[in-house]
Amino acid sequence: METKDLLQQVGFIKEIDKLKYIQRKTKLFNSDRCENDAEHSWHLAMMTIILAEHANQPINVLKVLKMVLIHDIVEIDAGDTFLYDTTKSHDNTEEELLAAKRIFGLLPANQAKEFIDIWMEFEEGFTEEAKFARSMDRFEPLLQNTSNNGGTWAEFNVNYEKVYNKKKVIENGSRSIWNYAESLINDSVEKGILKK
Amino acid sequence: METKDLLQQVGFIKEIDKLKYIQRKTKLFNSDRCENDAEHSWHLAMMTIILAEHANQPINVLKVLKMVLIHDIVEIDAGDTFLYDTTKSHDNTEEELLAAKRIFGLLPANQAKEFIDIWMEFEEGFTEEAKFARSMDRFEPLLQNTSNNGGTWAEFNVNYEKVYNKKKVIENGSRSIWNYAESLINDSVEKGILKK
Questions:
Q1: Per the structure, how many domains does chain B have?
Q2: What does pTM read for this prediction?
């Protein structure tokens, strides 16, 4: 192992500490404190190892873990975009691609390539691993909002139809989790914390 | 897949949100803001996937990831114990074992057993995976303290000998990371941010 590689890796480890300062719109469970991207990424990793057995197809859990652990690192440069933002797309932007190249580019070349590839695979969402990782990313804030009396749905006036359309991709990763998620959405309408 | 299992898993996912409120003594890099256990666990997971190639022996990376992601969950009940605490042992305590049984016990029985076993394997530190996971757990605060002008060493009057003895276990997981860690400790003495 080259010492040079280790020094580059330590440089990256220090740089990604900044993810702990990137605030999301969603709040912790039963809380009014915003979650940050590092906490969110840890929670998705935990959800992945616990819920992997619900995946529609067999998945490589290690790969999904890498995806969810790194998926928001680009936000160190590009910032967090709210899922229901009406002026800025949440999809893979040129700004995020530049961020991926700069930040993962701090690593030794082979790892930089591996991480950029995994991040793009997640963004594209075609593979079984990416579908499941994206399910986790949509499922956590749904659990948070239903625990927070509507949370960001109430705060930003997001209605049932928008929520349903954004959350339906959970089904691509796991039909059983989607069935449960759909029941939570319907319950939220009944409780009046999500408007039709 | 049983719906009952999914409901238990969601109960666990909500419970472990509390890890985001458990404050550690160490601070973020170049910062005076304390790190919390969820952020710390995320950072160890990132370090694991980046640094696994430095392990003394081949390791099962997925297992190490599970270890570092869950290793502090018992602190939801038992609280964080400072590595250099002089009145309370940092080792596996009865209090932590009760916490493991209560919190992991929220999961379906087979997963509860898997997680308690993995947590105990980490605590015992005998396997290659546990040795490497423990290296990561000691390496991160070393990087933080050297970035923070001595950090908790200065704040709590911890001297070179105590730091050296606690950090030397890094060698059990990775000799190359330990070589680098040792040089950081020696540099800290030279810079006057760690007292002999």
A1: 1
A2: 0.96
